[in-house]
Specification:
By secondary structure, this protein is of the alpha/beta class. The chain contains six helices and seven strands; from the N terminus they run ββαββαβααααββ.
Length: 198
């Protein structure tokens, strides 16, 4: 009896391929989760997004790394979470959680693009956001690790003041030293507030 020829096996990057499961819903990409060496995956070379690494690094410092990057299994390219990977590497993490997905290159580019674009198109419920930020601001560390600052919260809260009550605050010269320490400002610093520089 002649031996059956085997199909060539495509090399795989990261994790074991999950067994086929007929009960998996149509429309769910084949995927599995693994904690991997940070150098075993790499940013997608065609990611057009320019992320804010400072905010992400602050979040990793304050909240630790949570969630997972999404990786195209066949290439090892990150298709969601490129800047989280860069920030994690900068912070010295050796391992990160990854979700490996089985998609072709065309689908990977679509996922890469929509992951970025969906964030562009998103918005906030300002009332809920203000409530959450007020609560977080009262806790230990204040707003550190949220991506928002005290000025963001102040601007947000002004939206909910009754009409006619939004007046410029009077200078608080008698509290200058206290406020300097609270806001961590030094003489000679330059601050950008929207289009204005102080």
């Amino acid at each position: 009896m002649a031996a059956k020829s085997k199909k060539p096996v495509k090399p795989r990057v990261g994790g074991k391929k999950p067994a086929k499961n007929p009960s998996v819903q149509a429309g769910v990409v084949s995927q599995d989760y693994s904690v991997v060496d940070i150098h075993s995956v790499k940013p997608h070379p065609r990611n057009a997004r320019k992320g804010n690494l400072k905010v992400i690094e602050e979040s990793i410092t304050e909240n630790r790394f949570y969630g997972a990057v999404v990786v195209q299994r066949s290439t090892g390219h990150i298709i969601a979470g490129n800047h989280r990977w860069i920030a994690a590497k900068e912070k010295g993490l050796k391992k990160i959680p990854a979700i490996f997905v089985d998609v072709d290159d065309a689908r990977a580019l679509k996922i890469l693009t929509v992951d970025n674009r969906a964030n562009d198109l998103a918005g906030y419920d300002d009332e809920i956001l203000a409530s959450v930020l007020k609560e977080v601001a009262r806790g230990q560390g204040g707003l550190i690790g949220t991506g928002f600052g005290d000025l963001d919260l102040a601007r947000l809260l002004r939206q909910f003041e009754p009409a006619g009550t939004q007046v410029d605050a009077e200078p608080q010269i008698d509290r200058a030293e206290e406020l300097r320490k609270e806001w961590k400002v030094e003489t000679g610093q330059l601050w950008q507030l929207g289009e204005h520089r102080l």
